[in-house]
């Protein structure tokens, strides 16, 4: 016998037989489901499937982070692949003697004094913001530095370590970068009573290291390798022991290596000219666009200007000729006399002068090129050249193909024979000047070294990006070593 319960026995389910009972039962959702299950099993199965799909859809929509993360990762991978269409860069981890220790010993790199200030901030140098106050827009003063003209080795090294196309797997690399500060290594010996072995010591040690430690160097004999040399090419082309400089470029193992230099040998395929570093290092696209707008709308009261100094030891020094031209036209030209070291690494006076003139005179420097070209163009002033090798045969990746679109050329011999520089420049209409200035200002992004890390300015390429893109394109599209 079952145990008794105090609960009343359930009533048997009755089929509704009155309007009252029908109302009570049909308003009950459980009753409707019961009838559906009992009389339409196939309909119930279909409904179950629909409800399950609805549940899954709502569940997925409630987890946006997972799908968004996956989509973002896919988009990032696609973007990276597009940005690195010409391949990736492997950066050698060289022994410290080839870079880090040279910077640490910055007090000994120059016979006239320490170079530590010049090499600070990864090659940008000390801040120049205080000196630029009142000359440049207030929100850009922090982007100006006393940058040394020979600092590209440090600047490139810092950027390539953070480049979006850098790879840690040498087997996947298209290009191999040697972060050797050859300019710093030889610089300390250029004005001293040094021997040829002293000037070549670091260079020979580097090539021995590469040959004995890295199969990637040996498999191509350096063809897919590149390096930044922070001085002009002639400082590395000593052919005889008693001559100037290092013999680094003439060493047999260097014959296939691409060299990025502030001045190239125009007849050497492996030399690539890159801009001298200026003092402006924008951090964002906004910095860059603000500067371009500033120089585009700047009022300019002078026709032309010249920043430089004579070289008394040079017979018929052409810079002396230009100085006389400027001094003879005080209402049209302004001179910044750079006698001594007054203009080393740029001065606020130079920038102010270039900002106020339509044209700036750019003769050759101690070699065919000079940093002043880039200080001039950065200020939105139109360069006037007297040697074609000063720019036209040097910076093909960075300057417009048509020289007349952004510059003026006057043969130096014509000037020596009496041609008036002022007369030549006054022939250009205001519209001509506006057109050329706009071309110069459009070039500015490719002439500056930005203070950025991975990704740079996004769609805007600075001098570093243009150089590395060019090297990768050259290696991927050029003659193959294997």
From TrEMBL:
* Start and end residues of each stretch annotated as Disordered: 1-23
Keywords from UniProt, A to Z, are:
Glycosyltransferase, Golgi apparatus, Signal-anchor, Transferase, Transmembrane
Looking at the record, the residues that make up the Exostosin GT47 domain are 84-421
A GO term for molecular function: galactosyltransferase activity
Membrane-related topology note: Single-pass type II membrane protein
Query: Which InterPro entries does the record match to this protein?
Result: Exostosin (IPR004263), Exostosin_GT47 (IPR040911)
- Report the domain of life of the source organism: Eukaryota
Single GO cellular component term: Golgi membrane
Q: Which Gene Ontology terms describe the biological processes this protein takes part in? A: xyloglucan biosynthetic process
The keyword ATP-binding appears for this protein: no
Localization per Swiss-Prot or TrEMBL: Golgi apparatus membrane
Q: Which family does it belong to?
A: Belongs to the glycosyltransferase 47 family.
Q: What is this protein called?
A: Exostosin GT47 domain-containing protein
Native source species: Stephania cephalantha
């Amino acid at each position: 016998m079952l145990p008794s319960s105090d609960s009343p026995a359930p009533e048997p389910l009755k089929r509704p037989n009155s309007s009252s009972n029908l109302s009570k039962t049909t308003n009950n959702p459980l009753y409707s489901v019961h009838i559906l299950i009992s009389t339409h099993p196939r309909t119930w199965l279909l409904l179950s499937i629909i409800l399950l799909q609805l549940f899954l859809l709502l569940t997925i929509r409630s987890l946006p982070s997972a799908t968004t993360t996956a989509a973002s990762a896919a988009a990032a991978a696609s973007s990276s692949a597009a940005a690195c269409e010409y391949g990736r860069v492997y950066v050698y981890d060289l022994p410290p003697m080839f870079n880090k220790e040279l910077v640490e010993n910055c007090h000994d790199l120059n016979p006239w004094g320490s170079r530590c200030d010049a090499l600070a901030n990864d090659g940008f140098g000390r801040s120049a913001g205080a000196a630029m106050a009142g000359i440049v827009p207030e929100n850009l003063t922090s982007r100006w530095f006393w940058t040394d003209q020979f600092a590209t080795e440090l600047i490139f090294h810092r950027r390539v370590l953070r480049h979006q196309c850098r790879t840690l797997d040498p087997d996947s690399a298209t290009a191999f970068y040697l972060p050797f500060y050859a300019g710093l290594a030889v610089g300390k010996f250029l004005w001293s009573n040094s021997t040829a072995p002293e000037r070549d010591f670091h260079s020979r040690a580097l090539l021995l290291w590469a040959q004995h430690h890295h199969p990637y160097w040996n498999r191509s004999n350096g063809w897919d390798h590149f390096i930044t040399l922070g001085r002009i090419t002639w400082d590395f082309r000593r052919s005889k022991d008693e001559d100037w400089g290092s013999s680094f470029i003439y060493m047999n193992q260097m014959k296939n290596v691409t060299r990025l230099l502030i001045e190239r040998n125009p007849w050497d395929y492996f030399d690539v000219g890159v801009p001298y570093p200026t003092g402006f290092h924008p951090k964002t696209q906004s910095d860059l666009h603000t500067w371009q707008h500033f120089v585009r709308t700047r009022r300019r009261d002078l026709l032309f200007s010249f920043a430089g100094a004579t070289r008394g030891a040079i017979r018929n020094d052409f810079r002396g000729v230009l100085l006389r031209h400027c001094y003879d036209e005080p209402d049209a030209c302004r001179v910044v006399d750079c006698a001594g070291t007054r203009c080393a690494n740029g001065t606020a006076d130079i920038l102010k002068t270039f900002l106020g003139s339509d044209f700036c005179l750019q003769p050759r420097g101690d070699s065919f090129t000079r940093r002043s070209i880039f200080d001039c163009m950065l200020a939105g002033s139109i360069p006037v050249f007297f040697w074609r090798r000063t720019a036209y045969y040097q910076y093909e990746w960075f300057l417009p193909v048509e020289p007349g679109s952004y510059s003026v050329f006057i043969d130096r011999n014509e000037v020596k024979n009496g041609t008036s520089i002022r007369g030549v420049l006054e022939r250009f209409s205001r519209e001509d000047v506006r057109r050329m200035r706009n071309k110069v200002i459009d070039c500015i992004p490719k002439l500056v070294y930005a203070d950025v890390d991975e990704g740079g300015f996004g769609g805007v390429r600075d001098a570093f990006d243009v150089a590395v893109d060019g090297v990768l394109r050259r290696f991927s599209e050029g003659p193959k070593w294997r």
